[in-house]
Amino acid sequence: MDGRVTGSIGVGFVVLAGFAPTDTDPTLEWMAEKILTLRVFGDTAGKMNLALDDVGGALLVVSQFTLYGDTRKGRRPSFVDAAPPAVAVPLYERFVALLRERGGGTKVETGEFGAMMEVELVNDGPVTLMLER
């Protein structure tokens, strides 16, 4: 961002996190736990059987309100379902804190909330998931 790197990881997950005004602490707790325990990394047999901690993975969490873009009508997406910054910032900060608290030694890096960022990733494998509760 502005020529500087705000977060960088090796093996792990890039988490694009969008928040709704109705999101609650139990929802954030569920999401954090789910992300930290998903078994999507290949074991020695190539089977998706290992979690983030098993592979020494890390997390890069990037706020992404555009995930709530509604394109059903018109030509421009509507973002009325996304939490406004006054609501989303505390949700984002709590979510990151939960990942750090529950992730043990898992490295958790972040982007900068609300900033225009260039995110680079190497998608090593066929796994891209949408988690919603």
In short:
With 133 residues, this protein is of the alpha/beta class.
Mean pLDDT: 90
CATH superfamily: D-tyrosyl-tRNA(Tyr) deacylase
Helix content: 10-25%
Rg: 16 Å
CATH architecture: 3-Layer(bba) Sandwich
Number of domains: 1
- What is the spatial order of strands in the main beta sheet? 1-4-5
Question: Approximately how much beta-strand content do the residues carry?
Answer: 15-25%
Report low-confidence residues grouped into runs of 5 or more. none
By secondary-structure content and strand pairing, the structural class works out as: alpha/beta
Query: Helix and strand string, N-terminal first?
Result: EHEEEHE
Shape annotation: globular
**Tally of extended strands?**
5
Terminus-to-terminus distance = 31 Å
What is the CATH domain class? Alpha Beta
CATH topology: D-tyrosyl-trna(Tyr) Deacylase, Chain: A
Please give a handful of descriptors for the protein shown:
133 residues, alpha/beta, D-tyrosyl-trna(Tyr) Deacylase, Chain: A, 3-stranded parallel beta sheet, two-stranded antiparallel sheet, 2 helices, 5 strands, 23% helix, 15% strand
Describe the structure.
- This protein is an alpha/beta fold and 133 residues long.
- The chain has a single domain, classed as D-tyrosyl-trna(Tyr) Deacylase, Chain: A (3-Layer(bba) Sandwich).
- It is 23% helix and 15% strand.
- The strands form 2 sheets. Strands 1-4-5 form a 3-stranded parallel β-sheet, covered by helices on one side.
- α1 (25-37) crosses α2 (85-102).
- It is globular.
- The model has no long low-confidence stretch (mean pLDDT 90).
